[in-house]
Specification:
- The chain has 243 residues and is of the alpha+beta class.
- It has one domain (55-236): START domain (Alpha-D-Glucose-1,6-Bisphosphate, Chain A, domain 4).
- Helices cover 27% and strands 32% of the residues.
- It is built from four helices and ten strands.
- It has helices spanning 17-40, 86-95, 164-170, 213-236; strands spanning 53-57, 62-69, 72-81, 108-118, 121-128, 139-149, 155-161, 178-179, 184-191, 197-204.
- Strand 2 (62-69) and strand 3 (72-81) form a beta hairpin.
- The longest helix has 24 residues, at 17-40.
- The termini are far apart.
- It comes from Salix dunnii.
Length: 243
């Protein structure tokens, strides 16, 4: 009698579109509340005891902070964009789209929609190429994206991975791709009274329990670069009344 080693099992779930919509709507609602909480806690210049530790506080108003709960690492970047007109604000809001991240992330080789569940709710595939940094090389993420405008005008964009079984059913993993896990990420863009806006970006990584310092430093730099590009987009948009 001969025996062979265990065969890797790749599970996938077939799920109806209605069930998928209900699941994603529930999951994204939780993500939105977490994002709103992160954007509201310990405002720049205020002191709080909510677990956020400031890593970088630059003179230009950028704040990078980190919070850890067990093996989960969450990073937050905040930037006050001053003198941004309503029209410019809309440009910034429209630029925040998971399928447009290639504008800022050169390692991302593909970002495309798989399915639209509602007008503001989509399933997207993000794929990094062979030339990406080691921790991202050949990784892909099957995520949902939900855009919601609150009663006060605050825009929230929540992006997070689908469970791997559901993701496999929607889009089977291909060849040498590694299916990554984005636990939670998203944007909160708040319109302020003085024609300015506060942009907050939050990202929670795989619960690996340990992150190399070089990766943390690169992520912090990337957070600043992303919002810097958003700022340039806003400033490049004609203000109200300009022709």
């Amino acid at each position: 009698m001969s025996s062979t080693g265990p065969t890797p099992c790749s599970r996938s779930w077939s799920i109806s579109e209605d069930s998928l919509r209900r699941y994603v709507h529930f999951a994204s609602e939780s993500c939105i509340q977490e994002l709103l909480s992160a954007s509201d806690s310990n405002r720049i210049g205020n002191v709080g005891n909510d677990g956020w530790k400031i890593l970088t506080d630059l003179d230009n108003g950028v704040e990078i902070s980190k919070r850890r709960s067990g093996s989960f690492h969450t990073f937050r970047s905040r930037w006050l964009l001053r003198s941004v007109s309503p029209q410019q604000f809309i440009t910034v809001a429209n630029a925040i789209d998971a399928a447009k991240l290639k504008q800022w992330e050169q390692d991302l080789v593909e970002a495309r929609y798989i399915k639209d569940l509602e007008d503001n709710l989509s399933i997207i595939r993000l794929r990094f190429g062979e030339n990406s940094k080691p921790l991202f090389r050949n990784r892909e993420f099957i995520v949902y994206e939900r855009r919601e405008t609150m009663e006060d005008g605050t825009l929230v964009v929540a992006v997070a991975s689908l469970p791997k079984e559901i993701a496999a059913g929607l889009h089977p993993k291909q060849n040498n791709a590694i299916r990554g896990l984005l636990l939670q990420s998203g944007w909160v863009v708040e319109k302020l009274e003085d024609d300015s806006c506060m942009v907050t970006y939050v990202v929670q990584l795989d619960p690996a329990g340990w992150l190399p310092k070089c990766f943390v430093n690169r992520l912090n730099t990337k957070l600043v670069m992303i919002i810097e590009n958003l700022k340039k987009l806003a400033q490049g948009c004609p203000a109200d009344g300009d022709k």
